[in-house]
Design goal:
138 residues, mainly alpha, Multidrug-efflux Transporter Regulator, Chain: A, Domain 2, three-stranded antiparallel beta sheet, elongated
Length: 138
């Protein structure tokens, strides 16, 4: 009976490169790059790439990581941890990398705030020195 049920179950869903590009607003070039980097490994059907539901999930994680500024190496570490040690270890690795990235962004924000303040002071000095420039500086 179990054998019959397994035969009737549809195979896991697969995706073409075009489908994933549309869904995630990515380019085929980006997906091929992630494949070259070993982050994705689609199956092949003749010359076409065939992505599994696991590839789709990995792509989603890759794009989220890139959006927040994670490096390819950091993303690879997170994905490899899942493959080697499982989901709990992956979550711990992701948390470590996320905290590190938060610290980097906070330091970057502090530098940007300092630069803005310096520019404001410079602009204030120039306006005091050349009041006629104030009209054009808006």
């Amino acid at each position: 009976m179990t054998l019959l049920l397994n035969l009737k179950r549809p195979p896991y869903r697969t995706y073409s490169i075009t489908q994933l590009c549309r869904e995630f607003n990515a380019t085929p070039r980006a997906l091929r790059f992630y494949e070259e980097q070993g982050l994705l490994s689609p199956a092949r059907r003749d010359t076409a790439r065939v992505y599994s539901y696991k590839d789709r999930a990995r792509l989603q994680l890759i794009l989220r990581g890139r959006r927040v500024g994670l490096s390819i190496a950091e993303i690879r570490d997170i994905l490899d941890t899942y493959d080697e040690e499982g989901p709990t270890a992956q979550d711990a690795e992701a948390l470590r990398i996320h905290k590190k990235r938060i610290e980097q962004l906070q330091a970057q924000r502090a530098h940007v705030d300092e630069a803005i303040e310096e520019l404001k002071q410079g602009a204030k000095h120039l306006i005091c020195k050349y009041p006629q420039l104030a009209e054009n500086a808006q």
